[in-house]
TrEMBL record:
Lineage: Bacteria, Bacillati, Actinomycetota, Actinomycetes, Micrococcales
The keyword Nucleotide-binding is annotated on this UniProt entry: yes
Pfam families: P-II (PF00543)
Protein name: Nitrogen regulatory protein P-II
Native source organism of the sequence: Arthrobacter psychrolactophilus
Residue positions, PTM O-UMP-tyrosine: 51
GO molecular function, one term: ATP binding
Length: 112
């Protein structure tokens, strides 16, 4: 099993979610995040005062997948979140050694 984590732009969430649901993903976790990459921060002026915005709002998506689905899901996330500009995000996967569905006690891929 793999845990796929994606950091994307907030405005791309609906497109990514719809693409994952179309593929057959039945569960995912979405949380808010703030960060920066190569685009770094920028300065803004608010009521005459200039300030630096260092961290950009992002969305973190986590999906647990079987080994067979993992690369397909990564490709779907990348394709549906890509705008072609800096700050589109990152996607990575890590190995998951065990998962348990709390309600039923199912383990492994059955718990997905």
């Amino acid at each position: 099993m793999k845990l796929i984590t994606a950091i994307i732009r907030p405005e791309q969430l609906d497109e990514v979610r719809n693409a994952l649901e179309s593929y057959g993903v039945q569960g995912l976790t979405v949380s808010g995040a703030h960060g920066y990459g190569r685009q770094r921060g920028h300065t803004e002026v608010y009521r005459g005062a200039e300030y630096t915005v260092d961290l950009h709002p992002k969305i973190r998506i986590e999906v647990l997948a079987s080994d067979e689905q993992a690369y397909d899901l990564m490709d779907i996330i990348v394709a549906s979140s890509n705008t072609g500009t800096a700050g589109d995000g990152k996607v990575w996967m890590i190995e998951v050694y065990e998962a348990v569905r709390v309600r039923t006690g199912e383990r492994g891929v059955a718990a997905i």
